[in-house]
Amino acid sequence: MKNEFVSTVSHELRTPLTSIVGALGLIIGKGTTTQLPNKISTLLEVAYRNSQRLTLLINDLLSFEKLEKEKNEFKPQLIDLVILARNALEENEAFSEQYSVELIFETTLRSAYILGDTRLLLQVFANLISNACKFAPINTQVKISLELNDNQYRTEIHDLGSGVPTEFNRRIFQRFAQADSSSTRKKGGTGLGLSISKSIIELHQGIIGYMTSPQGATVFYFDLEAKPMLTNIKTELVIDKHEI
Question: Domain Histidine kinase: where (predicted)?
Answer without folding.
Answer: 8-228
